[in-house]
Amino acid sequence: MTVRVLFLGEGTSDSGIADHISAIAADRGVEAAVTSPELDRIKDVGHALSDKLAKIRELGGQYELVAVHRDADAVGRDLRLKEIEAAIREHMPQVVHVPVIPVRMTEAWLLVDEEAIRRVAGNPNGRCRLTLPPLKRVESVADPKSELKRLLATASELSGRRLERFNRRFSENRRQLLQRLDAGGPVAKLPSWQAFVHDVENGLRRLGH
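The structure assignment produced for this chain is given below.
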């Protein structure tokens, strides 16, 4: 049986997480049909999770599993869990939910693969030195988004207007990095990634898989 999964990210560049949810399900022998609606294209939908869930319910979407992505930012995982649980309880209490909560920001997951950063920067054979944070400290980087922007710009080896144009494509570059993230690579050692995988697997178990 195919499990219908709704993925709600914080933005369109988070859609790569949906691919990883499908892969985790496939590893357990489960076919997952993951829908990642671009709700920000609908004018009357607010940014709050409750607003998004209310619109999904209004549109008549039917799902067995809801995966909700929220960065921990400065408030931490526990508060994000409570926010997600409260919104699900209000709008989709009958649906199993899965939290997706990177430490601080999703960009922390993308700071672990130098080769991928060089490829997405369009300069896979570049020789400039990239100083990635040590794996054991990557989840404590104060501003992983700024760090990722810096690394991509350095890896591109561009300058002037070409660099300005490249920097404006950050959201797309971020989306590509997330899609290409090697789930069996260094990211698998990060506690927040391990929690993500565990939560998806637990959600599937609750559905009987």
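Interim note for the steering committee: The CA atoms of residues 71 and 105 lie 5 Å apart. Residues 3-103+190-206 form a domain with the Rossmann fold fold (CATH 3.40.50).
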